[in-house]
Write a structure and sequence with these properties.
The complex is a heterotrimer.
Chain A: E1 11-20, E2 23-33, E3 38-42, H1 49-56, E4 65-67, E5 70-73, E6 76-77, H2 85-89, E7 90-93, H3 107-119, H4 123-136, H5 142-145, H6 155-167, E8 173-177, H7 185-202, E9 205-210, H8 213-219, E10 222-227, E11 230-236, H9 237-242, H10 247-254, H11 278-285, E12 296-305, E13 317-327, E14 332-336, H12 343-350, E15 358-363, E16 366-369, H13 377-380, E17 384-387, H14 401-406, H15 414-427, H16 444-457, E18 462-466, H17 474-491, E19 494-499, H18 502-508, E20 511-516, E21 519-525, H19 526-531, H20 536-543
Parallel strand pairs in A: 3-9, 3-10, 7-8, 8-9, 14-19, 14-20, 17-18, 18-19
Antiparallel strand pairs in A: 1-2, 1-4, 1-5, 5-6, 10-11, 12-13, 12-15, 15-16, 20-21
Helix pairs in contact in A: 3-4, 4-6, 6-7, 15-16
Chain B: H1 2-29, H2 33-37, H3 44-53, H4 60-72, H5 86-121, H6 126-140, H7 143-157, E1 170-171, E2 176-177, H8 182-215, H9 218-225, H10 230-268, H11 273-282, H12 286-314, H13 316-319
Helix pairs in contact in B: 1-12, 5-6, 5-8, 5-10, 7-8, 7-10, 8-10, 10-11, 10-12, 11-12
Chain C: H1 13-19, H2 21-38, H3 40-43, H4 84-120, H5 122-136, H6 140-154, H7 160-193, H8 195-202, H9 207-243, H10 255-264, H11 272-299
Helix pairs in contact in C: 2-4, 2-11, 4-5, 4-7, 4-9, 4-10, 4-11, 5-7, 6-7, 7-9, 9-10, 9-11, 10-11
Classes of the chains: A alpha/beta, B mainly alpha, C mainly alpha.
């Protein structure tokens, strides 16, 4: 790690505050960056990290306001009243390439507009610069592509265009606000590498605002950990990841699932022992079905979308092609793939929500195929429950927690349900007195616990988890993952665990299947797959993942 | 692009056919054409002869085919009330209505778009508040009340402008226009303003809503973060995006204006198709009603198609496939 | 663990109402007008239908504050000597009956069809929505006039006056159901795609129960908002049709009919016969619209 002499500072911020009404979103933060350095501002949602970026661009939305006791760029105080500060001196890379580009203008016209305004280039020079920029961010055939519209680029390429726009005037500081959160893992690695190399080559300082510890590990030199608007720790990245000093940094880093080793449970501060009521355990286990039946067996499953109907010409999409696997009793089976790999389609089919075109699913011995009549579906779904990705859409906002959890309890007298629901809530780590409240009173993590309690109330043998933690902050994810593991151990649940997140798979699953464009390219025991992947695709996926140093025990 | 056009053409054809069927059903089954068309003292034999000559004894599908076939040639039968060919009546009234609609559209766009932009850029300004207040009263006031109040003020009290008719028209052979005489201009002002007011509010609110939404979009925030000046963000970037839906709505609303002209024409005794239609409804003059319906249906389909094609030409997302 | 309160909790609706002068004033004015229309027989100073009590001596009297006004007739009299204020109260009653009935009919039919189309999908959805498209692509006024014209051709001449009110209600409702149907359909499709509906299905709930217990309560707030806004529109549509002479007959005048009658005498300077009914109409629609506007912002539903 390099030392940072104060005189060389490109960016120096002291006592930055961002206020919304009376509340401070950012509460006195100091940040330094030298040329070529990438400083990560890392934190969970609500930490105030995005407000830091907004303040640096003087784009805090009213009625919010910001102030700082000192804010200099190369030793000169930043004066936002001067016209060319934003865009020429300080620029920004936005998060979502799908929405960051104006759809009605060509890439060339957006680039030319930008450099002509800030640098006063002639039309011809500006056009040349536009092509150069596209070339620099790695877009092939820039002379032709420059005349394309944003929608003609794929997601990753579009993010490159966003970077080209941000850097077209060669700014001295760039703020990258979650630049890879909307991208797939393979594209993510490339974009991060691009940012890294441009900063090095140009000596440009970069503030990387992110919640992703992987991105921090991959490219940042130093990191500022934020919580509740304050910087709890600022340290060189390697040092922070291996030996964080602040308790919050330690919790945060301990909650990040590592890709290169398996840990039993995430080391979290004690959130209160889970209370297990023996009579609840008895009730949950009383539904034990035929012990010999395989929880889930999938054979030759195929599903095709599109290309049907009059005048609807589109290429058919093979969402699933000849997928087969089995889940054993008490096993957590992971199904992993990028977006569009067909993993969610498979979850829907296994849950009996979508009919397959080819092949068959057997849930506890009950078959489901294209030929299964709709009326047989209710019986098919018996013994299975599901936990969904988005805890905000998986609970009916007008129904109380009690009614929500009671819904899958068929034939349970109300008096008994009123005894079981509080016990279930305690089992998933929620206080039992929240029964009468509606979903809006809960945070995302709490809602996910309610959804798990509802799933348990159906006394399932098989639990399908469709990206159960990808909408959650990393520390909440760790809590939910620990809870799911406990439930498997205590109740002998079998699980189909669907995710895009390889490190999570390594921590959670006994066996894993890798889906790529609808086909199962790899299937095996988790440790074997991670240690010696057979498929090229799996190997490539694993290579994109940054390795975090092992967390040293607290001193 | 081609499948899109084929699908749009298919839809248009379907709408025209539906409207045609509706017109036909009305023509055939609302009242008895024979009773309406023969003299009071006609004998049973005379009526039967008329029935036969009108083809009313043929099977209904054959009658429908004949009806459509004639309509395609511009033959909509004879008006029960005026005893003249319906197509003549419409041709005579068409210029008055189209000129009124044209004037109203120009007025609505010329005032509505700037007001929408201004109120979006300064949502808390004094002008915004006034415009918002007036437009709320505007949408709550029926067209005919606006018209009556304008007449009361400008024609009855101040006596500045005429309250009815088209003024002096100049016959160009195939078209009679009021735009070539001073009295024509004076006569069209109040009706055009009355007809335009509602569209004006609509366009203003639409532009305002679109602008406000677009100004909060990611790509405008990104443009701002890149330090582009407000002037070019507002007028060069955002306005172009905001005007896309205005194109659609204006196109569709021109058809609406033709129909809304019914009320305006009625208030100002403007000798257009709307007045013809409302008299037809009052006297159950079915051939005129049916023809008017067909006409408005065709105008709608044509405008819709025009809007779609323009949209496809203007919006790169539709023009070029990525 | 701390709870997160949502800003638009339904319990806060009353609080929002009490905090908004716009909402309270518009609701008060609307309520006052609706009540005075409802109690017209009790509060109207004269009976506008008792032709025998009219005196031609009293005809064309200006409002009481103008020169020649008569204290018996607060807002003056018409050409027949009818009290304008009483005529307005009774006329508003007719306008509101048509408005409420049209809204109830269109909201009921539209919501039901929208739920079915959105939940079932398939051919039912396709047919209903194409039908709604055709209706929506024609201006309200044209369709209403056609319905009215057809009714005139089909119904016996002698009974037209009796049927006029039903024809009007139908003519208005036939336009407006589409808006409920489209919005409810869209919202139903959104709700049905949400994971809680999948969870309910996995838990073994039948379709009918899912519709009634989960989806219907979640699509009702846009229906309420549209109904409020459409009450204003329905009253306007009624007034327009009556003004054009194809709505309520002179024997049973609505506000629109009164304005039509008044308009015929506009040039003789009898302005009060047209201005007061018109002002009442605008006030009624404006207050309902303002309240609807506020309600839309307060409930903030997605409107299609």
């Amino acid at each position: 790690m390099r030392s940072i002499p104060a005189l060389d500072n490109r960016l120096r911020i002291r006592g930055l505050e961002v206020l919304y009404g009376g509340a401070a979103a950012v509460d006195g933060i100091d940040i330094d960056a030298v040329p070529g350095e990438i400083v990560a501002i890392v934190g969970e949602s609500g930490a105030g990290k995005s407000s830091v970026g907004a303040a640096l661009l003087d784009l805090v939305d009213p009625p919010g306001e910001w102030r700082a006791s000192e804010m200099t760029l190369d030793g000169v105080p930043i004066d936002y009243k001067r016209t060319h500060v934003r865009g020429r001196d300080i620029s920004v890379i936005f998060q979502d390439p799908q929405t960051a580009l104006n759809p009605l203008f060509t890439v060339e016209s957006q680039l030319v507009h930008m450099v002509r305004h800030h640098l006063g280039l002639s039309q011809a020079e500006a056009k040349r610069r536009a092509v150069e920029m596209l070339d620099e961010v790695g877009i092939a055939d820039p002379e032709t592509r420059v005349r394309a519209y944003p929608h003609q680029f794929s997601g990753g390429m579009r993010q490159r265009v966003v970077i080209a726009l941000a850097l077209a005037c060669r700014p001295r500081l760039v703020i990258a606000d979650e630049p890879t959160s909307a991208l797939d893992v393979s594209v993510r690695a490339q974009i991060l590498e691009l940012i890294r190399s441009i900063c090095r080559d140009r000596g440009m300082a970069c503030l990387l605002i992110t919640h992703d510890m992987g991105a921090v590990a991959a490219i940042s030199d130093r990191a500022v950990v934020m919580r509740h608007g304050k910087a709890v720790e600022t340290a060189p990245t390697g040092q922070l990841l291996a030996a964080p000093t602040a308790p919050y940094s330690r919790t945060l880093i301990a909650a990040v699932p590592p890709v290169d080793r398996k840990i039993d449970r995430f080391a979290l501060p004690d959130t209160g022992a889970v209370v297990s009521d023996p009579s609840l355990e008895r009730w949950l286990r009383a539904n034990e079905t035929d012990a010999a039946a395989v929880p889930l067996a999938v054979t030759g499953l195929g599903k095709t979308f599109g290309a049907r109907g009059f005048l609807k010409r589109g290429t058919p999409v093979h969402a699933l092609k000849d997928v087969s696997f089995e889940i054993g009793r008490g096993e957590i089976f992971g199904l992993v793939g990028e977006s569009g790999s067909g993993k969610s389609t498979l979850a829907q089919i296994a849950a009996g929500l979508l009919k397959p075109d080819q092949g068959e699913v057997r849930l506890l011995g009950k078959p489901f195929s294209a030929a299964t009549p709709d009326r047989a579906l209710r019986r098919y779904r018996d013994g299975m429950q599901m936990v969904f990705q988005d805890p905000f859409s998986s609970l009916n906002r007008r129904m109380s927690v009690l009614d929500t959890i009671m819904e899958p309890m068929h034939g349970v007298p109300r008096a008994e349900a009123l005894r079981l629901v509080p016990a279930l809530l305690e089992r998933v780590g929620l206080p039992p007195d929240v029964m009468t409240r509606k979903p809006h009173a809960f945070s995302g993590g709490q809602r996910q616990r309610i959804a798990i309690a509802r799933a348990l109330a159906g006394r399932p043998s098989l639990l399908i988890c469709d990206e159960p933690t990808s909408a959650l902050d990393v520390s909440i994810q760790a809590q939910i993952l620990n809870l799911l593991k406990d439930l498997r151990d205590d109740l002998g649940l079998s699980m189909l665990f669907i995710t895009h997140d390889l490190p999570v798979v390594r921590q959670m699953c006994d066996r894993v299947g890798v889906l790529h464009r609808g086909s199962l390219v790899e299937l095996g025991a988790t440790e074997a797959v991670f240690e010696s992947p057979r498929a090229d695709y799996t190997r490539a996926l694993l290579s994109y993942l940054p390795h975090l140093p092992e967390l040293q025990p607290a001193s | 692009m081609l499948p899109f056009l084929i699908r749009r053409l298919g839809q248009a054809f379907l709408v025209v056919l539906t409207v045609g069927l509706l017109s036909f059903l009305m023509f055939r089954f609302v009242g008895d054409p024979v009773v309406s068309m023969s003299r009071e003292d006609a004998t049973v034999a005379e009526r039967e002869a008329l029935r036969e000559s009108l083809g009313l004894n043929d099977p209904v599908p054959v009658q429908f085919a004949t009806f459509i076939g004639r309509a395609v040639q511009g033959d909509f039968g004879i008006s029960y009330r005026n005893q003249r060919p319906v197509s003549d009546l419409i041709a005579e009234r068409l210029p008055a209505t189209l000129e009124l609609v044209f004037a109203a559209t120009v007025l609505a766009l010329a005032i509505g778009i700037p007001l929408g932009v201004v109120t979006a850029l300064r949502p808390r300004g004094a002008l915004s508040n006034i415009v918002q207040g007036v437009s709320l009263v505007g949408v709550s006031t029926p067209t005919f009340v606006t018209g009556i109040m304008l007449i009361l003020l400008f024609a009855v009290t101040l006596r500045w402008l005429p309250s009815f008719g088209r003024g002096e028209t100049v016959d160009l052979g195939w078209w009679s226009t009021g735009f070539l005489s001073a009295s024509g201009w004076r006569a069209i002002f109040l009706p055009a303003l009355t007809l335009a007011l509602f569209q004006m509010t609509l366009i203003m609110r639409l532009v305002r809503a679109e602008m406000i939404e677009i100004l909060q979009s990611d790509y405008i925030r990104f443009a701002r973060a890149r330090g582009l000046p407000d002037r070019s963000i507002h007028y060069r970037l955002a306005l172009k995006n905001a005007l896309m839906p205005v194109l659609t709505i204006t196109g569709m609303q021109i058809g609406g204006l033709i129909a809304f002209a019914i009320v305006t024409e009625s208030v100002f005794q403007w000798p257009g198709m709307g007045l013809l239609f409302i008299q037809a409804v009052q006297f159950v003059d079915v051939p005129v009603m049916a023809a008017y319906l067909m006409f408005v249906g065709l105008v709608f389909v044509a405008l819709n198609a025009a809007v779609d094609v323009t949209y496809a030409l203007v919006d790169p997302r539709l023009r070029v496939r990525g | 663990m701390s709870g997160v309160a949502s800003p638009s909790a339904p319990a806060g609706l009353m609080g929002q109402f009490l905090a908004s002068p716009k909402a309270m004033i518009s609701a008060a004015v609307a309520l006052l007008l609706i009540l005075s229309a409802g109690f017209a027989p009790l509060i109207a100073p004269h009976d506008p239908f008792a032709l025998g009590t009219f005196n031609l001596m009293d005809s064309e009297l200006p409002p009481v504050w103008a020169e020649g006004g008569d204290p018996r007739f607060l807002l003056g009299t018409d050409t027949q000597g009818r009290d304008v204020l009483s005529a307005i109260l009774y006329g508003m009653r007719v306008s509101l009956i048509v408005g409420f009935a049209a809204v109830a009919l269109s909201a009921g039919i539209g919501t039901l069809l929208g739920l079915l189309a959105g939940f079932r999908g398939g051919w039912l959805d396709a047919v209903l929505m194409r039908f709604a498209d055709v209706i929506l692509s024609f201006p309200t006024i044209l369709i209403a006039l056609l319905v009215s014209g057809i009714a005139r051709g089909v119904l016996p001449d002698a009974r037209q006056g009796d049927y006029a009110i039903y024809v009007l209600i139908l003519a208005i409702a036939i336009n407006e159901w589409t808006q409920y149907a489209r919005t409810v359909r869209g919202q139903t499709m959104v709700e049905a795609s949400l994971d809680y509906v999948k969870a309910a299905r996995i838990s073994g709930l039948a379709n009918g129960r899912i519709l009634g217990r989960h989806i219907l309560p979640n699509v009702l707030s846009p229906v309420i908002v549209i109904a409020t806004i459409n009450l204003g529109l329905a009253v306007l549509a009624e007034a327009t049709l009556s003004f054009l002479g194809v709505g309520m007959p002179v024997t049973q005048p609505s506000l629109g009919t009164l304005i039509r009658i008044g308009n015929e005498n506009l040039f003789s300077g009898v302005w009060w016969v047209v201005v007061f009914p018109a002002a009442t109409l605008v006030m009624l629609v404006l207050s309902v619209n303002l309240f609807g506007d506020w309600l839309r912002d307060a409930l903030n539903p997605r409107l299609g």
